[in-house]
Specification:
Layout (H helix, E strand, L loop, with lengths): L2 H11 L9 E5 L9 E7 L10 E3 L1 E6 L2 E6 L3 E7 H13 L4 E5 L2 E6 L4 E5 L2 E5 L2 E3 L14 E12 L9 E6 L8 E10 L2 E10 L5 H14 L7 E13 L6 E2 L2 E3 L15 H18 L10 H16 L5 H11 L2 H8 L5 H8 L4 H17 L1
Parallel strand pairs: 1-7, 4-13, 11-18
Antiparallel strand pairs: 2-6, 3-6, 4-5, 8-9, 9-10, 12-15, 12-16, 13-14, 14-15, 17-18
């Protein structure tokens, strides 16, 4: 019942398909604390507009040799706090007669011809379908596949005087040392005296805890010019960035969230892809009577683009800061954000790809095209 499970449940609750059905939602945790934040961009009002904690229409991009304040229109960059998200979802689901929420340890899943089952604390429950967001085991990465980790530590810092412009975020700042691999910081000002500062890396392995703390303190000192501040909250997370092909289903078990391949391989963004996948699942249930007609149009093309960038970053054919600098220096933000949402037209993609060094990307593209046939 993490982000993916709750999102799917909310989409179901808003659909007439849920009327008269019994839907069991299971999670080990009670979701009663603010354990994370989700930041994402979208146009207009999304399904969770009522709980958007902060939004920004402008954001800074920094890299060696280039800095710019970007107008994100027609997009807005939004933040949703975990505790607000959990409370919002629980309030809707607890008032809906079709939904039952249960806390326990999910031990196993299975599928038969007419139903699927889940074992929770030793008790088996059967239903028509099971929607699973749990990665029970790490994926086995084939030799021709790539996996990086997006790992990050964030501090919510507070100051005694007004030090932040809450109208402007920092989307990516690549000025910190790149010794460990692609490294950047983003800053989400929450008020003139409060901001979330997130130290983020794309690398094959995690770092020791002191390295994250040093990265944060050095950035706050050297680039934000702050020495007198208080750390009010901390968060830490790890997101797989891989072109491994996660199974979308096993019989009547449909995988969702990261377990279902909804994390974008080249960026680690998941929240918006979960919403779109949830909407397709519900549309399939309404139109077809089953949840399996969920393939996004032209998804394979974007999977290939993701693999190419992963190849570039993993093999360090180009430095990550350089790739993103060229993207943001040569393209309007709306084209980049639309591309990262897998929603661009082919002509838009050609213009975007032409803004990058051609030869390294052509070689990586051919290599990853060959690897796709191996899979």
């Amino acid at each position: 019942m993490g982000c993916a499970g709750l999102s799917l449940a909310i989409h179901m609750a808003r659909s007439p398909w849920a009327e008269g059905r019994r839907i069991l939602i299971v999670d080990r945790d009670r979701k009663d604390r603010n354990d994370r934040t989700w930041c994402f961009w979208e146009t207009g009002a999304g399904p969770f507009e009522d709980i958007v904690h902060r939004r920004w229409e402008k954001a800074w991009f920094h890299a060696p040799g280039y800095s710019g304040l970007k107008d994100l229109a027609p997009y807005a960059y939004k933040m949703v706090r975990g505790i607000d998200y959990y409370r919002h979802c629980m309030q809707i689901l607890s008032a809906h007669p079709s939904f039952e929420i249960r806390h326990g340890e999910v031990e196993s899943l299975s599928s038969e011809s007419e139903n699927a089952s889940v074992r929770i604390d030793g008790i088996e429950y059967k239903g028509h379908y099971v929607f699973n967001s749990i990665l029970f085991e790490p994926p086995v990465i084939a030799t021709h596949e790539i996996q990086l980790l997006q790992h990050f530590k964030g501090w919510v810092i507070e100051t005694e005087t007004d030090r932040f412009d809450s109208r402007e975020a920092t989307l990516m700042d690549f000025r910190p040392p790149q010794d460990h691999g692609t490294t950047f910081v983003y800053v989400m000002p929450l008020s003139p005296r409060r901001a979330l500062v997130e130290y983020t890396l794309f690398t094959p392995a995690l770092l020791d805890s002191n390295t994250y703390d040093k990265g944060l303190s050095d950035y706050i000192d050297n680039h934000m010019g702050l020495t007198d501040y208080r750390v009010a909250e901390e968060e830490f997370g790890v997101i797989p960035m891989t072109n491994h092909r996660f199974p979308s289903r096993e019989g009547r078990v449909l995988h969702i969230g990261t377990a279902g391949g909804q994390t974008k391989a080249s960026s680690g963004y998941t929240f918006r892809f979960i919403q779109k996948h949830s909407a397709r699942i519900v549309a399939s249930l309404e139109a077809k009577g089953h949840p399996f007609d969920t393939k996004g149009f032209w998804k394979g093309r974007y999977d290939w683009y993701d693999s190419v960038l992963l190849h570039i970053l993993h093999h360090r054919k180009l430095e990550g800061w350089f790739v993103f600098r060229e993207l943001f220096r040569n393209n309007p933000p709306r084209r980049i954000l639309k591309f990262l949402d897998n929603e661009t037209t082919f002509p838009e993609e050609v213009r975007l790809l032409n803004s990058l060094p051609q030869w390294p990307f052509m070689k990586a593209g051919l290599r990853e095209l060959m690897n796709r046939f191996k899979g």
